[in-house]
């Protein structure tokens, strides 16, 4: 504003100089203009902010939204709600993980077949028994003394899959093997073949009394599963 007044005064003085107006007339006109400028400044009220006389800045009153109870009560309630939600989430997560693990774990019938217990007293000497373990046949042979001697009187180096009889048994009188031919998976027949052990009729593989391959296309001896003897009369396979 003052800058505008200064410019107007300068223009008026120049006009006086050009038109030969009396200088005192110009000065009085400038003084009157300046007085009007002060008066206009003092009566100005900004619509956007506060003036010197009145405070037009209105701060909203949120009092009706504030809680009527004490801050401690509010904190306790907040903690209770947060704790309850956390507890509920933890229980839900535990149930979800538990359901997933139960669903993925082995079923009861599979667990029942994981280990098989056999009473050895029911198997006479010189006899075979076939049991089912994890869906596969298992041969249990109660060998005689002569069979044990025959199994040991072999030149191991002459075998296709060299293995000593003592490395295939825990007790010499008990021979335990998977009844699956190592050629293509047929089930060999007991007490048959050229070597008095097992014979696979599918393609003609002959196994001896220790379950070692002696003739035919099978490349390996019959597999020995993991087993143990908890006592003298009990065999546990698996
Ligand atoms: S599967 Fe036994 S010889 Fe082929």
TrEMBL record:
PROSITE patterns, sorted: RIESKE
Subcellular location: Mitochondrion inner membrane
Pfam families given in the database record: Rieske, UCR_TM
Membrane topology listed for this record: Single-pass membrane protein
EC number(s) given by UniProt: 7.1.1.8
BP GO terms, sorted: mitochondrial electron transport, ubiquinol to cytochrome c
Lineage, broadest ranks: Eukaryota, Fungi, Dikarya, Ascomycota, Pezizomycotina
Descriptive protein name: Cytochrome b-c1 complex subunit Rieske, mitochondrial
Something else known: The Rieske protein is a high potential 2Fe-2S protein.
The keyword Electron transport appears for this protein: yes
Keywords: 2Fe-2S, Disulfide bond, Electron transport, Iron, Iron-sulfur, Membrane, Metal-binding, Mitochondrion, Mitochondrion inner membrane, Respiratory chain, Transit peptide, Translocase, Transmembrane, Transmembrane helix, Transport
GO cellular component terms listed in the entry, alphabetical order: mitochondrial inner membrane; respiratory chain complex III
Entry's family note: Belongs to the Rieske iron-sulfur protein family.
Co-factor requirement: [2Fe-2S] cluster
GO molecular function, one term: quinol-cytochrome-c reductase activity
Origin superkingdom: Eukaryota
Keyword Transport annotated: yes
Catalytic activity: a quinol + 2 Fe(III)-[cytochrome c](out) = a quinone + 2 Fe(II)-[cytochrome c](out) + 2 H(+)(out)
Positions of the Rieske domain: 168-236
InterPro entries hit by this protein: bc1_Rieske_TM_sf, Rieske_2Fe-2S, Rieske_2Fe-2S_sf, Rieske_Fe-S_prot, Rieske_Fe-S_prot_C, Rieske_TM, Ubiquinol_cyt_c_Rdtase_Fe-S-su
Top EC class for this record: translocase
Location (main, coarse): mitochondrion
Cofactor note: Binds 1 [2Fe-2S] cluster per subunit.
